[in-house]
Amino acid sequence: MTAILVFVILAVALATGTPIAIAMAATVLLSITLFTNVPLLVVVQQMFNAADSFALMAIPMFVLSGNIMTAGGLSKKLIRVATDIFGPLPGGLAIAATAACAFFAAISGSSPATVAAIGSIMIPALMKAKYDEKFSVGVVTAAGSLGILIPPSIPMVVYCLATGEAIGKLFLAGVIPGLILATIFAVQCYMAGRSVLRGKRSAKASRTASGVW
Description:
Structural class: mainly alpha
Order of helices and strands: HHHHHHHHHHH
Helix content: over 70%
Distance between the termini: 79 Å
Mean pLDDT: 77
Number of strands: 0
Strand content: under 5%
């Protein structure tokens, strides 16, 4: 019965448009007040102790760095560098999007910030280059998830704080898997780029043949 009431309180809070974080916090506080004998003072003390962590300060710093890079146009510069390097290859624009996401994620530590900063530029550019819309969105969205693996990573920091693991070791453990995943994305982009080139050549050949006839 208690669990049902907790879910009802949470559902009502969400239905009224309350932000998720506030709704969950209010649900927990109400549940503790109504169904337990734990004083609220103890709850406040535990919340303060949980937030009183030096490592936790990395999260707002990551968010701040992502906002600074977005406002300063660093994402455009990363895209320009990646395009210069991978542009001549088949699927070079898609590979450049993957590389730019990896670079940005390695600096900001946030996958949503990476997708927002890189996707706003690269998705229209990919579609303009005759890539499929679903593929264009998928490339940036999938590559943006590299921010979870490639350090520094906000989810890794939160996981380490919750489990007591060493943040440095978890960062090191995410480097190689992140690079492998980025390479897999790049290979897929290369194959898709070859398909786009074949389509362009076929269309050009058809126009040439029709012009001759």
